């Protein structure tokens, strides 16, 4: 039995063309798709990792971030009470709690700010977190953060429009119904911070730039060629010589380096809180909570990063003689004593000189 083989029909011309187009399109498109997929994955991979990190960060922020531990209130309160007790016992021992006519025994209310609305009284000690608390007092006075950020007005000038300078009697009455506080700092660290801020980095055409030029004119010795470079600002030893001469001649001192014992006369006003910059975060937190101001202000120290470090202390004080450092300690002797600071570590930095006899006991400092 034989089968007839069917004759295969060839497709028409258009069908053949379509098949050819489809064949060549498939050959060309598939490699392009593969290349595109590989390239897209290459570029999206970092983005996917970025999104993954972002989601991980959000999860960590919302769910895994540990809460900031609050300081032990009992420890903070005990420390502040001990400081207050120490201050007024030392005031009595030194006889600084008695009224008199000199700058140590005459109540000085000039630098106090009294916020009657929130029952808060502060003595503004320059170079002891003063920028931060001037900002806080301006907030409490009604200035907005946006305004304080944009304005070119001096913060102290803004504050004085809201907080006029009180008389000693008015200040004492206000302190009876308010929380009064004072922020102090190691005297020699505060002095160095004032020098760096007001003289070394003074702005052109300011009072302190002019003062610096006067110090250079009087205290800078002519230096021979190829010696130490001649700075445009007074060096730290030049500034210290100027300061010590002011003391010897009984000239008034700039408010940025006036001793706190004269600036705020703490022996003649009773402060509720004596904060130290060394424990400022905890001290501020307690103060703000005690005054019920948590919703209005927060603990901060705006210029803490610009303050003297131990490295800077060594750098600057190692350029002074031991006698110069001892004279500075004598100038700030009451600040050392009233606020329980020590000169330990400073005398050792000084250069030896003939006038130093090794006796530091005469300054009755620790």
From TrEMBL:
Q: Where are the transmembrane segments?
A: 21-39
Query: How does the record classify its membrane topology?
Result: Single-pass type II membrane protein
Q: What is its main location?
A: Golgi
Tell me the compartments it is located in.
Golgi apparatus membrane
User: InterPro entries recorded for this chain?
Assistant: Carb_sulfotrans_8-10, Sulfotransferase
Q: Which GO terms describe its cellular component?
A: Golgi membrane
**Keywords (A to Z) from UniProt:** Carbohydrate metabolism, Glycoprotein, Golgi apparatus, Membrane, Signal-anchor, Transferase, Transmembrane, Transmembrane helix
**Gene Ontology MF, one:** sulfotransferase activity
Does this UniProt record's set of keywords contain Glycoprotein?
yes
Tell me its EC number(s), please. 2.8.2.-
The broad enzyme category this protein falls into is transferase
Domain of life the protein comes from: Eukaryota
- PANTHER family the UniProt entry points to: CARBOHYDRATE SULFOTRANSFERASE
- Protein family (similarity comment): Belongs to the sulfotransferase 2 family.
UniProt name for this protein: Carbohydrate sulfotransferase
Task: Tell me the organism.
Answer: Cryptolaemus montrouzieri
